[in-house]
Design brief:
Layout (H helix, E strand, L loop, with lengths): L2 H53 L20 E6 L5 E4 L1 H5 E2 L11 E7 L11 E13 L2 E10 L1 H49 L17 H50 L5 H32 L5 E5 H18 L3 E5 L5 E5 H17 L6 E8 L3 E9 L20 H7 L5 H11 L3 E7 L3 E9 L2
Parallel strand pairs: 8-10
Antiparallel strand pairs: 1-2, 1-6, 3-4, 4-5, 5-6, 7-9, 10-11, 11-13, 12-13
Helix pairs in contact: 1-3, 4-5, 5-9, 6-7, 7-9
The structure holds adenosine-5'-triphosphate and magnesium ion.
Length: 462
Amino acid sequence: MKIRHKITLWIVGTGILTSLAFSLVVFLEMREQPLQILDSQLNLTCDAVAKEVSKNPDFLEAQKFNRTIIVQGSRYWLKIYDPILQPIYQSELSRIVDIPLLSNKRNRAYTFDAHLLNNDVNHGEKEEIAFRVLVVEFQVENNTYLIQLASSMEKIDEEISELLRALGFGLALSAAILFCIGYFMAGQILKPISAINSLILKINEKTLSQRIPLGKSRDEIFELSTHLNNMLDRLEFSFAQQKQYLADASHELKSPIAMLRLFFEDAAQHSDLPEVWQNKLVGLQRNLLRLDRLVKTLLALSALEVNESLNVENFCLTELILSVLEDFAPLLQKTNIHLETDIPQNIYLQGDKDKIRRVFINIFDNAIKYNFNGGEIRFNIYDDGKSVKLSLYNTGPGIPYADREKVFEAFYRVEKSRSTHYGGAGLGLSIVKKIVNLHRGVVSIESELGEWTRVDITFPLT
Ligand code: ATP
Ligand code: MG
């Protein structure tokens, strides 16, 4: 679950809980109030009835039973009992609603679910109506009479259910509002983190100099950005140091190797040396040559790492390739490899001529090295107006499918024995890819294991 959703849920959850607690208090309060009002109305009405009856004691005589006591409106349920608890008066309502006289409920109002008398509309299921009932005693000429007064709570119940509906609607509305606000707020809070995230995704070894912009407020995001920037500083420094170290080391190795090579060439001139030593010298000279090549490739690679700038010029690609092929001619002859080319005249390219020459030297070197004796090489160039496509095909042991991307990594060799046999260090193709990419081109390898390999390079013309 995303943090934005979690924050939103927390806000909505907390909001709903608070609203629920608030609604509960409001509900209880609002439920009590109409009851209190009703109770005091019942009390007042009982007093009024008691006063009216006390003023006209003859009212209590049986023959006056049919007189009507005017209590406010006809909504009250009223019964008056004589000292032996026989009803001596009852209102219209009390004839259709049954509320028994309970002996233990005096002077305090209570709620009672009353049934309608003679109600057979619902086939035995008696309809219940809630009544608030008050029973009070009053004295007339030293006799104790009872007034039982009740009022329907239908209206109050209606009001309460209306209140419940309103509270429910209010809760749903506040949850919806809280959701919108929470979602928006979480988005605002997390905005800087998303920005940091997308920037960090863009930073790689080539764009290590980029930094996360620091906001104005000194909050946790500011701290996080500062720490990430410090980490990037350290990374950039150690990357640069590593590159410099590689450049320095290979540069320092160059002169001693050159001196050793001179020494061995000189020593090889001395024919008076015993044959065993002469053979050893030849072997050592071969190893030294391999070391010399490795150091030179490392130097080229580190020079590329340190200096990625291009010395761009418009040059004739056809001429450059023909001159590289000329250099390789003796080697092709020696290995009996048949070369077939399709190179159009006057193809021009914008780029760093020296670096592109290195690309062709590396791929031709591979095409000859990893070929069969008496094998074949086919090279062609195609210019479609937008880009120059070059393709170099050679017969040979090929490259396994799984290694086709890895051969572009520095020091990666398919079979260690294969490359060391040819003196390879596994750097050639990584240099090729670097140079091609610097020219915004693409390089890829296709191969059939044990049959052939094809290197395709595309340089954009603009
Ligand atoms: P270096 O080029 O540094 O002297 P290398 O030739 O071993 O050494 P790369 O040119 O990077 O290194 O090639 C990487 C590996 O890819 C090689 O070891 C080889 O196994 C394989 N490879 C490259 N080109 C070909 C090819 N044309 N045919 C078959 N295998 C190849
Ligand atoms: Mg190579």
